[in-house]
Task: structure prediction
Amino acid sequence: MKPGDAVVRPTEKVTASARQWRREFHSRPELLFDVPQTAARVADHLERFGCDRVTTGIGRSGVVGVVEGRRGPGPVIGIRADMDALPITEATGLPYASTHSGRMHACGHDGHMAILLGAVCHLASTRAFSGCLVAIFQPAEEGGAGAKVMVDDGLIEKFEVEEVYALHNMPGMDVGTFAISDGAMLAASDRFDIRIIGKGGHAARPHETIDPVIVGSHLVAMMQSVVSGEAEPTDPAVLSITSMHAGEAYNVISGELALRGTARTLSVANRDLLESRVRSMPPAVAQAFGAEAEVIYQRGYPPTINHARKARKLGDAAARVVGEMAVERSFKPIMGAEDFSYMLQASPGAFIFMGNGATAALHHPAYNFNDEALAYGISLWIELVTRSNG
Result:
C-alpha cells in the first residue's frame, strides 16, 4: 500500500467549496476582533453543516462549532483557525482581491478558515470518528492575542477541550509537505520603548549639552552584547533595536532620544534575561553620561511550544496524508510569534506548518494562499480526528 492510500480525503465537492469559501473570505478581510462579517459567515456554514452546537461571541468575536462522533468515546479535539486579516494594501491583482481598502488576508487566515470548514463539513456529514471535534475560529491573531482572550473566556473549560491543534501555511515549502517538531516552533515576542533624556542645545556648542544620541549610540552597542555574551549560545535569542529618533533640525542637538525594539526568545531563561538587561542597561548607561532613561517593556505572545506526544500524533497524521518523506519532524524553530501559544499553555497539543509553494512571503502585499494546499490541510484534520485515540 502506498503512503496515504487508506486516508479519508475530502470529496472534490468539499474541496471546490473550500476554494470558494477561501476566496470569499479573501475578498472581505476584517481586522483583529472586528470581524462581524467573517464570524457570521463562519457560523452560518457551521449551522448548515449540522454541527451539534454553534457558539458565537467566545473571546469577544470567536466562533466555536461542536461535532460529536458516532463511534463511541474518544478525545475532545480542538482545532483552531484564525480569522483576522492585516492592515496592508493588497497588490495581487486577483479577481477576488480585497474589496476593503487598506486591508488584506496577507497571512493565509482565509485558507486556514476554509481548511477547517472543509474538515467540519466532511466530519459532520460522516460522523465516522470517536469523541468530539471542537472547531475553533479565533479573531485577533495578528497582534490582538485573540487566543488568550478566548482561553480567558473559558474556551477550554466550556467545551471540555482535551487537546488542541493548529496549522499555518508556509511560503517556500512545497505544497504537499508539512513541518513540525516536538518542542519550540516559534518564539516569544516582546517589545520595548526607551526614552533617553539629556540636555539639548545648539549643535555648534555641544559642550553645553548632554547629547542623548551619543548616549543612545553607546547603549545600542552595549545591548548587542547581551545575546552574544550573556545568553546561552545553543538557546536562540534575538534583541533588535528597530527605531531610533531624536530631533529634526541640522543644527540642534535634541534633548531627548526615543528608541524601540523587540526581543525574541524560545526559553523562559532567555526571556527573563533579555527583559532584565533591557530594563537595567539604559538607566546605567544614561547615568554615566549625566542623562536619564525611562524604559517600558511589554511582554507579548509566549513561545509556541508543542507537547511532544501530541506533536508525534499530529506528525503521524500528516505522514499518513502525504507520506513520511514529506514530513519534516525536526523543524528548526523560527523567531516569529504566534498566539496559538496561549492555547498550548492551556491544553496539550501541537502546531504544524504546511507548504504553500513558491508564493510571496507572509505579510507581503503580493501574498496569496495557494488553493492547491487546501486538500492537504483538510485531509490532515480529517485524518487527525478520524484516527485519534488520545
